[in-house]
């Protein structure tokens, strides 16, 4: 038994720490390999905890996978929301939220990729977690620009398209790390402005004209 493994089995290690180790290790492995190629033995080994703790905390591999996805989604929401009181300009608030989103992805690449890939693609519970996260991102941003529910269909559509674009930008960034974060934010904001401007041009979307001007860049 290695020294690190022995330490992980020590009663001095908090139970919540062992659970967190399992979530972190599972996030890494699910991001590296397809779901079917990840074993609970491999997860426990990477987490340096007893194999039986997976059943104790999560029931089985699927339960651990769902917990991994939900943990990453919640952490991402908290990281993004934490910056929204740092600016009053809606575009600057958007930039801060996107920057924090990318920073979180950089610091937690495995969990972030596990969320976006959703290895159990046909699993309703996984899809519910991912869909709730996606809706939350869209709603947070639309609230920032003064749109109200029910959102016009064209606005909902362009926002889903923009979010898909932004997700792919972040995935590419995590794979290559060769574009500065500030540039990624510029790209995302520019695409967002274009998407919203296109929606406004249909005449079916109404938001505060002052915010529309900011989004269109006329005040900058």
Automatic annotation (TrEMBL):
Keywords: DNA-binding, Transcription, Transcription regulation
Gene3D superfamilies (alphabetical): Tetracycline Repressor, domain 2 (1.10.357.10)
Record-annotated DNA-binding residue ranges: 39-58
Domain HTH tetR-type residues, every copy: 16-76
Classification via PROSITE patterns: HTH_TETR_2 (PS50977)
One annotated GO molecular function: transcription cis-regulatory region binding
PANTHER family assigned to the protein according to its UniProt record, in alphabetical order: HTH-TYPE TRANSCRIPTIONAL REGULATOR RUTR (PTHR30055), TRANSCRIPTIONAL REGULATORY PROTEIN (PROBABLY TETR-FAMILY)-RELATED (PTHR30055:SF227)
Name of the featured protein: TetR family transcriptional regulator
